[in-house]
Specification:
By secondary structure, the protein is of the alpha+beta class. The protein has helices at residues 3-7, 9-21, 28-33, 35-43, 73-82, 88-98; strands at 24-27, 48-52, 55-60. A 3-stranded mixed beta sheet has the order 1-2-3. The radius of gyration is 26 Å and the shape is elongated. It starts with a helix and ends in a 5-residue tail after the last helix. Mean pLDDT is 80; it is low at 1-7.
Length: 103
């Protein structure tokens, strides 16, 4: 019996894809035994594919830090009220000096 018969064609192809894209594959046993080292590596930016009996079952990777895209109106109003004052004429002169106006 071939490996693809045991795992199914989709699982086997997914395993091949993970093997090519991911830097490191670890067995479930290794994750259990070396948990602290694996978590340190993930915190440092490394990603892992965890396998059980040679079949990929999970991906362990760092959480992507997301930027906040929405600023509440109250926070914006507070920032403009307490933030530094900007002289519009000096600001415009600085922009004109730095940015080519023919663009």
């Amino acid at each position: 019996m071939e490996v693809s018969d045991l795992r199914g064609p989709v699982a086997f192809r997914r395993f091949e894809c993970y093997s090519l894209l991911m830097l490191r594959t670890i067995a479930q046993r290794e994750l259990r035994n070396d948990n602290a080292k694996v978590i340190e590596a993930v915190a440092a930016g490394e990603s892992f594919v965890v396998t059980r009996n040679g079949v990929p079952v999970a991906e362990l990777r760092p959480i992507q830090q997301t930027r906040r895209t929405f600023v509440p109106t109250a926070e914006l109003a507070d920032l403009t009220a307490t933030g530094p004052r900007i002289d519009r004429e000096r600001f415009r002169a600085d922009l004109d000096r730095v940015v080519h106006q023919g663009l």
